[in-house]
Design brief:
four-stranded antiparallel β-sheet; 58% helix; binds adenosine-5'-diphosphate
């Protein structure tokens, strides 16, 4: 398996290589084609120029040709690859390059042919003769046959120019390729570094180091989101781990006190130090009840937090239910000189009676636990739109603002030491929320420290699902 960085660098280099090669090829083809067109035009222009130049060498006055000039002309043209044969008006040959220097003519023709066949084998060109009429003031004075390599030919300088151009293209290609490889390496490093770091961090997390975080800021948006997500996950896991630890400590702590009491009492009774009076047995029984309650709470939590909380639905009169719950707190209320007032309408909703009983029970139990003696607790039930609203309001110690968003979490206690005294393990509200959510409802809280708290649950009155469930 190849490393991401290697793959990215190679991919980048390959793309640039193909691009540079294609661009070079296209430029090369284009330039060559243009150059051929230019060479063809150049040859025609040159031949036109020769014909015009020759026309000037005729003296109409005495009807004679300037043969010295024509000879000079013809030799210059021959050296450039143009073979002339000049005739007068009557068709008599005045000057012929072949007659004049046949060897040179053949040598130049074969030089050009060989060079073109070597450099442009596909062109299949040859020397072709073109006839031009020589005129002076519109009067015909003669002809010239000009032979040159057609469709075009390139001289040494032309080939040299094309070669230099190709070299420049090659150089540009090589430089771009090297640049691309470097750019690719830098880019690949930018992408692969955060991924490699994220991998290390997730590995650390999987080994239990939840406090680790990705500190550096990443410039690529998606990678930055990835690192943030990993940080978020680490945070959530750390929180869960803390909760788990706290649960172990709390459960151990909660169980230790009653167990110590039971064991010391039993020991004293077994050794005959204490008589097993009914008071003492009652005390032992209370401790066992405390342990049983904690275990039951844990068991309940497991149930409500299981994936599919099953609801046994029936029409439930919430006002009546609040009354039943309230009467089960008679003793506790009286013990703290608290009054519990119930008000509102007899709202009926389709729901699981036992579980809704649990909801109001937990809220009332908290209200009692966290109320100062002599206070009042108010439970109200009424309808608002599609929902049945139940509120449990107390005048107790209240909840600090910073704790409000957290109190529904498992094992969260606003003040651990304070709650321990009151016997809570931080599970009651988690159960409330799970049950209310299973009824498609919501739970919210408003509280002010020192003044009291008000918990409100909203349960949908009738949903499509409820309508089918309840007759
Ligand atoms: P506990 O069993 O500790 O009461 P809960 O889940 O019922 O656990 O509540 C979580 C925490 O929320 C409590 O520890 C307490 O700090 C706070 N809390 C809940 N209800 C009240 C209330 N009525 N008044 C003040 N604080 C409350």
């Amino acid at each position: 398996m190849r490393k991401l960085r290697t793959q990215l660098s190679l991919g980048f280099a390959l793309i640039v290589m193909v691009t540079v090669a294609l661009v070079s090829l296209a430029v090369n083809l284009c330039i060559n084609r243009q150059f051929e067109v230019y060479a063809e035009e150049r040859q025609k222009d040159f031949a036109d120029g020769l014909a015009n130049g020759l026309s000037d060498q005729y003296d109409a006055g005495n009807g004679e040709w300037n043969l010295d000039y024509i000879h000079g002309f013809g030799m210059v043209a021959l050296n450039d690859g143009y073979i002339l044969k000049v005739y007068d008006r009557a068709g008599e040959v005045i000057w012929d390059a072949q007659n004049h220097d046949m060897t040179l003519c053949h040598q130049i023709m074969s030089d050009i042919s060989l060079r073109m066949q070597r450099e442009r084998p596909d062109l299949k060109g040859d020397f072709v003769s073109y006839r031009y009429a020589l005129q002076q003031g519109g009067t015909l004075i003669g002809y010239v046959d000009i032979s040159y390599y057609s469709p075009y030919y390139l001289n040494e300088t032309d080939f040299h120019f094309l070669d230099s151009l190709n070299h420049i293209l090659l150089l540009v290609g090589a430089v771009s390729l090297i640049g691309a490889i470097f750019a690719g390496l830098i880019l690949a490093k930018r992408i692969s570094d955060p991924i490699a770091k994220t991998m290390d961090i997730t590995k650390e997390i999987s080994e239990g180091n939840y406090s680790i975080r990705f500190e550096a800021r990443v410039k690529t948006q998606e990678l930055n989101e990835l690192t943030q997500a990993v940080n978020h996950m680490a945070g959530a896991l750390e929180e869960q781990e803390n909760l788990r630890r706290r649960l172990t400590t709390d459960v151990a702590h909660e169980l230790r006190t009653p167990l110590a009491n039971i064991s010391s009492h039993l020991e004293a009774m077994m050794e005959g130090v204490w008589e097993p009076t009914s008071d003492r047995l009652q005390l032992l029984f209370d401790e066992v009840k405390r342990i049983t309650a904690i275990v039951a709470e844990l068991e309940q939590l497991r149930q409500v937090e299981s994936e599919n909380l099953k609801l046994d639905k029936e029409p439930v009169n919430l006002l009546e239910l609040a009354g039943t719950v309230c009467s089960s707190f008679e003793q506790e209320l009286a013990g703290k000189q608290l009054t519990c007032r119930i008000e509102g309408e007899a709202v009926r909703i389709p729901g699981d009676k036992n579980k809704l009983h649990q909801v109001i029970f937990n809220l009332l139990s908290n209200a009692v636990k966290y109320s100062s003696p002599g206070g009042e607790i108010k439970i109200s039930v009424h309808e608002r739109g599609e929902n049945a609203i139940v509120t449990v309001e107390d005048q107790g110690i209240g909840i600090p603002q910073k704790d409000l968003p957290l109190i529904f979490q498992r094992f969260y206690r606003a003040d651990a030491s304070r709650s321990r005294k009151t016997g809570g393990a931080g599970i009651g509200l988690t159960i409330v929320e799970a049950i209310v959510r299973a009824h498609n409802g919501t739970v919210s809280v408003e509280s002010e420290e020192g003044k009291g708290s008000c918990f409100q649950i909203a349960l949908p009155h009738q949903t499509a699902e409820n309508l089918t469930d309840v007759p």
